[in-house]
Amino acid sequence: MKTKFVFILPADFKPRTVRQLLQSWLIPKKWQHFLRIEQKILVNGVYRSFHLPVYGQDTISLDFSFLANQAQTYLPSAGALPIIYENDDLLVINKPAGIKSHPNRTAETGTVLNILTQQLAVPPLMVHRIDEQTSGALLVAKTPVVVPILDRELSQKTMGRDYLAWVTKLRTEPLADSGEINLPIGRDDTDQRKRKIDWQAGQNARTQYQILQQDQQQALIHLHLLTGRTHQIRVHLAALQLPIVGDPLYNPTAMPDQKMLLHGYQLFFKQPFTGEPVTVLAPLPDYFPRAAMINKELAQNKI
After folding, report:
1. What does the pLDDT profile of the chain (303 residues) look like in tens digits?
2. Domain map (residue ranges) of the chain
3. I need a surface site. Which of 47, 52, 224, 272 has the fewest CB within 10 A?
4. Residue 143 in contact with residue 266, Cβ under 8 Å?
5. Active site residue 286
6. Dihedral sign, CA of 289, 133, 174, 181?
7. Cβ proximity of 62 and 41 under 8 Å
8. How do 218-225 and 262-270 pair as beta strands?
C-alpha cells in the first residue's frame, strides 16, 4: 500500500508556507500534526518548519506510514469489474447495475469492494457510493492517504457526478425543459428501504436537470447532483411524477427483473496533491435505450 509520496513543485508555483501548502492539498489537521511532530515532511530532503516557505521546483517528500494498517479488508469475490481510469492512488470503475458498492456485514461477498479485493494488488477503499440498481462511474481509492482528500473534494463540490435517466412520464402537466429540483429528503417510516420528500425533518436536497429527449411515454433526462442524499435522484424524479424506468422502489409501473435506467455517465475531480483536473466518462450499458447513439454523443461532448 502506497504511503510515501514525492512531488516536485511546478516552476510557476506561488511561494507559500509549508502549512499553507498542506492546507491547499486538503490534508487533515491531525495528519499535518503528525507530519510536523515526526518530521515526516521533507523539503529537498530536509525537514522544514511549517512557518517557512516553499518555492517552485522544491521537492516535497511526505511519509504517511502511520496509515499503513488503516485499510479495511474484505472477503474476495470472483469476477472482474471494468476499470475506466486508474493511476497509482485511485481508480474509477464502470459499475454494473445489480452490484452493491460495499458489504454491510463482515461475511458478505459479491460487492464492488469484494470483487476488487481479488482483482487488485492492494485493498480497495470506498470514496463514494451509488445505489445497487444504478450503474456508472464509481471512484475507489488504492491508498488511505487520498480518502479524506477526495472526501473534502466531494463536500466542496470540486468532485461532481452527472447522470442520465430514462423516466416514465406519469405527470399530465408540462415541465420546464431545465431547472433545479429543491425538495428535502427524509426516511420513509413505512418502508426502511425507501426515502421520501419530508418538509418537516428532511435534509436539504438539490438536483439540476435538463430534458434531452422525450415522447409521449418517456423522457431522457440529464441530472447533476448539488447534494448527495440517499436515493436523491430517484426520489426527486418520482416526486415530479417522472419515476425512473425500472425503479423497483419508486416507479409503480416497473416490471419484475427490469433494469433500472439510471446511469452515472460522468465523474470529475481533481487529482490529489497535483490538482490536475480529471474527467472520466462511463459508457452506458447496452440495455440502455439508444445507448450506442448516446455514447457517441458523450464522446463528442454533445451532452
Report:
1. 899 999 999 999 999 999 999 999 999 999 999 999 999 999 999 999 999 999 999 999 999 998 877 768 899 999 999 999 999 999 999 999 999 999 999 899 999 999 999 999 999 999 999 999 999 999 999 999 999 999 999 999 999 999 999 999 999 898 999 999 999 999 999 999 999 999 999 999 999 999 999 998 999 999 999 999 999 999 999 999 999 999 999 999 999 989 999 999 999 999 999 999 999 999 999 999 999 999 999 888 878
2. 4-66, 161-263
3. 52
4. no
5. no
6. negative
7. yes
8. unpaired
CA 123/CA 138 separation, integer angstroms = 16
Degrees (nearest 5) of the Cα angle 18, 20, 23?
A: 110
Q: What is residue 212's three-state secondary structure?
A: strand
Q: Which of 58, 88, 131, 198 is catalytic?
A: 131
Q: Is 30 exposed, middle or buried (0-12, 13-18, 19+ CB in 10 A)?
A: exposed
Cα 187 from chain centre: 22
Q: ∠ CA 268-270-272 to the nearest 5 degrees?
A: 140
Q: Is 85 helix (H, G, I), strand (E, B) or coil?
A: strand
- Cα–Cα distance measured from residue 234 to residue 246, given in angstroms and rounded to the nearest whole number: 11
**How far is 146 from 216, CA to CA, in rounded Å?**
46
Q: Cell 488511505 belongs to which residue? A: 144
Cβ atoms within 10 Å, residue 123: 18
Topology of domain 4-66, CATH = 3.10.290
Cell of 78: 470472483
* Per-residue cell: 41: 515532511
Q: Which CATH superfamily is domain 161-263 in?
A: Pseudouridine synthase (3.30.2350.10)
pLDDT of residue 53: 98
**Beta-carbon count within 10 A of 206 CB:** 16
Q: What is the pLDDT of residues 223-256, one digit of tens each?
A: 999 999 999 999 999 999 999 999 999 999 999 9
- Please name the residue that has the C-alpha cell 487529482: 271
